[in-house]
Amino acid sequence: MVMFLSKLQQHTPTNEDIWGDDPLGRRECAVTLTRLIRATTKPYVIGIYGPWGSGKTVFMHQLQLELEQEKVPTVRVDAWRTDYLADPLVALVEAINQRQADEAAAHGGGLTRSPDELLEASLAIALPLSEIGVAATAVATPLLAATGAALKGALVAAKEVVSRRVKASKDLRIGIEHARDYLTGRARPGVVSPIVKPLVIIIDELDRCRPDYAVRMLERVKHFFDVNGIVFLIASDGKNLPAAVNSQYGSGLNSEEYLRKFFDYEYVLPEPNALQFTGVLFQSFGWDRIVPEGKMLFDQGFGSREQIASYVHGIQSFDRRYDYSEALDLFPKVADWLDLKLRDQAQAFTLIDVYLRTREPEEVAFPQLSVFLACMRFGREKKYREIIKNPTSQSFLGQMDFERPESSGLKPLRDWVTALASWDRPSQQKSSVIVNNAREYGSVDEPELLPIHARLRKLSNIGLSDVTSSFSRLARA
């Protein structure tokens, strides 16, 4: 069987297919938020919360398309791509102007106010506050520094700067209102009795920005966009923004309380369980083509000697479908036990995929242990390094949950570790007896151990260190 490496293929939302199969069950979340937004006429800021790696960016894109289909205009700002700017206000205005330009091109103009005026106002406000000091310094030369004329000139210059900013603030607000009216159809020529709806501004990736930029973005939203009919959707993991506030204003500030001043409503995205997401990974990595029936496990329908013999033969003839199937069965259990986030699950699954696809044609694979090591790599990195450096049964078993072996899915792992830790000549002889009885008579006293014995029967010298060394070459410790 030819194996091709793959990677996580996320569904790309389009106008024709926003949700795909909606494997994470988030369409209902978008419906709820869309209803809330359409009913909003006041200034409103909604925080969309989800852990790092939980798929917030994809959801924000899907929600944006849903809103557009409901004829609610949106403007999207990728904050991380713009945090090279000194002031996020410029990024916000540029995004609004771009949307206005797109609408004007699509509808043959109709703008009642030049977007340049909005940009000019934002630039005037975005000039650093030190400009006032610079203006004073430019007038107060060393020779005249102590004279009344110099002081008077400095004050005049400073007043001009302040006056310009006050005017710019008014112009900016007027420009925002004009943009809202144009994009929502309130002021578009030919539109009769338009339905009142908000303009939605989506800010994504804010928690990846440098702290000063992230905090200033929120402050700019509060100070300059407190306009009826403007709704903000701001994605966050709920951890980085509080840290950004403390980095700017000191650890003594209650950052959570400070942030509540900026958000009117907080919506937490439900996180899918590991089993649900494994189905996404299963298809995305092409495992559904390798194991079309989904499962080929030792305990699936073995009611006859022929079925058991077929299973043992498949394992011993290096039919990789059995390896993939057993990895697939265990993965969500270990991912759930270690509380892996979606992005961590995707990275762990990638590592398992690489491990299985790079086995030699007649090389024994250890799917259960590859699942454990991959999940530990992204869920307990420090413990993973300890195991790799000291691959003993104690280092493995010390990380496993003995209190809930069945619910956590760790019993097969314990069986594998125990077998490998004591793989000597008597164990090999015992394994041969177990496998022969299974093939010849359909008799399996300990069926949960059959996958181990079927794989290890032909090996004379193998141990945990051999498994971990072959795996660690694929994953940086």
Automatic annotation (TrEMBL):
Annotated InterPro entries: KAP_P-loop, NTPase_KAP_P-loop, P-loop_NTPase
Classification via Pfam families: KAP_NTPase
All residue ranges annotated as the KAP NTPase domain in the record: 30-291
Protein name per its UniProtKB record: P-loop NTPase fold protein
Organism in which the protein naturally occurs: Stenotrophomonas oahuensis
